[in-house]
Amino acid sequence: MLTSSVKHFSGLKSNNKFFTSQMIIKNWLALNDFNKIFVDKGMVLTVGDGIAVVYGLFNIKSGELVDFCAEDIKGMALSLNTDRVGVIIFGNDRFIKEGFVVKRTFSIVDVPVGQELAGRVVDGLGNSMDNGSSNIADLPRQRVEIKAPGIIARKSVHLPMQTGIKVVDSLIPIGRGQRELIIGDRQTGKTAIIVDTIINQNNVRLNNSEYLINTFNNTGEEIKNTSELEDMYCIYVAIGQKRSSVIQLTTLLRNNNSLEYSVIVSSTASNSAPLQYLAPYSGCTIGEYFRDNSLHAVIFYDD
Questions:
Q1: Which residues of 198-213 are buried (b: 16+ CB within 10 A; e: fewer)?
Q2: Cα gap 167→261, rounded to integer Å
Q3: 56: region left, alpha or beta (phi > 0 left; psi from -120 to 50 alpha)
């Protein structure tokens, strides 16, 4: 069928001397009634810069995960048009060629969540990057893009988040539920503040738990159970960094007994741009699990 279409093109009189493969695919699709077949499937028309334009996928949802069958590479549908879909590719787009078949997975992009993620290193899609003992694939999953709770539903900042750096904790204290920007030139110690904060959480849970809870408790009653403050999980999202830097940070946290309550989401410079785009959303989703289960978590975006 594809050969007959090519012969049909060669007989046309046109100013264009050469026909691209995209034109061949378009006309081949126009000559055949494939609308029913392409309801849940699609065909790549163009690909470049980590984005593929796919014909078909008429019933796809925004944010749905798709599978490029030929190379087993995943993608996410973002731009929905009448007869074509814009898909960002979670992998090397050099392996995706025009004419490749794309299938729906019938699931919105999600990542595994749970306390079992503590001590693990995952990528932007939640796949394991280390040799951990537990299987991440068996954990419950949560959608990456969900609506944030409103202002009324949120609790006011009432507990401190100690960094372990006396200057920061005394002059510009950071509260739980607060956002703080670490800004500075290159090689001035921005990541060092993050690492010190993660390591310090181990000291807080061992030494200062009862003091902090009883001091900042609004009811005035002493709390014997310190689990509210001890469960301070740290999520570190590395975006566009060198892989060696992420390995070095992981080793440092492990040597200081801080990896057991930390989750590292790694999307290094060697990963595609769509994976780096997705990593902060995945890290936020992992943190929202702790929030929804009355636990504390701090998340760091290190770009």
A1: bbbbbebbeebbeebb
A2: 25
A3: left
The residue that leads in pLDDT, 207 or 6, is 207
Q: Which residue has the tokens 């892989």?
A: 243
**Whole-number pLDDT of residue 212:** 57
List the structure tokens of 242: 């060198």
What percent of the chain is helix, strand and coil (3-state, nearest 5)?
35, 25, 40
In CATH terms, the fold of domain 21-108 is: Elongation Factor Tu (Ef-tu); domain 3 (2.40.30)
The domain limits of the chain are 21-108, 110-302
CB 234, CB 115: distance < 8 Å:
no
- List the structure tokens of 244: 């060696």
| Cα(74)–Cα(90) distance, integer angstroms | 5
Q: What is the mean pLDDT of residues 236-246?
A: 94
CATH of domain 110-302: 3.40.50.300
pTM for the full predicted model? 0.81
Residue 27 has pLDDT above 80, yes or no: no
Q: What is the DSSP string of 88-125?
A: EEES-GGG--TT-EEEEEEEE-EEE-SGGGTT-EE-TT
